[in-house]
Amino acid sequence: MKAVSQVAGRAYPWGAKNVDTDVIIPAHWLKTITRSGLGRGAFETVRAEPGNIFDDPRHAGAPILIAGDNFGCGSSREHAAWAIADMGITAVIAPSFSDIFSGNAFKNGIVTVVLPQEAIDRLIEVAQDQPITVDLETMTVTTPFQDRFPFEMDAFRRQCLMEGLDEIGLTLARDTAISKFEAMLHGQRPWIERRSGYEGLVVEGAGRT
């Protein structure tokens, strides 16, 4: 997972409320076994409408999406986070998120920022023609007009995002500690290790199976 400490640039000033995962990525895109290319299906029904925000050249390639309340509700499909990431979005700002979507977004390196509706309204106004900055170091969203909106985030998630650590990365980061524990376990309780060949496991207090 790529480390993220700051996301800066143009934003999609959408603001739509109750956007479910079927809107983010329709069900017929879920047949794929790879994450690559899902960005083409992201917000497909919205993009079918003339003059939609996602095909507006002023916001092309924007790394930030400004959405409304309850973003990512509906089914638990992780494809929603995959599709958003594949289209280049690294941060989503909204008044609230579905818990499952928020978790999936975090696992895929997407920053989810919760701000009150007044802040969302201001950011949508600014994002029409100006960039926005989401800073995990200072835990703020700022604009060129000196707007400064502080936000909160779970400390563990913030650390993982800033260090680029997913579940695999977290495990590998503790490789030394894990190796020491396994060496200690081998020395103190060798009977719990699987022997070579088909001999089964030897359990303390029981016979060999």
Order of helices and strands: EEHHEHEHEHEEEHHH
- Structural Rg: 22 Å
Number of DSSP-assigned strands: 8
The fraction of residues in strands falls at 5-15%
Spans with pLDDT under 50 lasting ≥5 residues? 196-203
Oligomer classification: single chain
Strand order of the largest sheet: 1-6-7-8
Protein structure class: alpha/beta
Mass-distribution shape: globular
Query: So how many helices?
Result: 8
* Gap between N and C termini: 43 Å
Q: Indicate the mean pLDDT.
A: 88
Percent helix, as a range, is: 25-40%
**Sheet of most strands:** 4 strands, antiparallel
Any descriptors?
single chain, 209 residues, alpha/beta, 4-stranded antiparallel β-sheet, 4-stranded parallel β-sheet, 8 helices, 31% helix, 13% strand
Textual characterization of the structure:
- The chain has 8 helices and 8 strands.
- The protein is of the alpha/beta class.
- A 4-stranded antiparallel β-sheet has the order 1-6-7-8.
- β7 (140-142) and β8 (148-150) form a beta hairpin.
- Mean pLDDT is 88; it is low at 196-203.
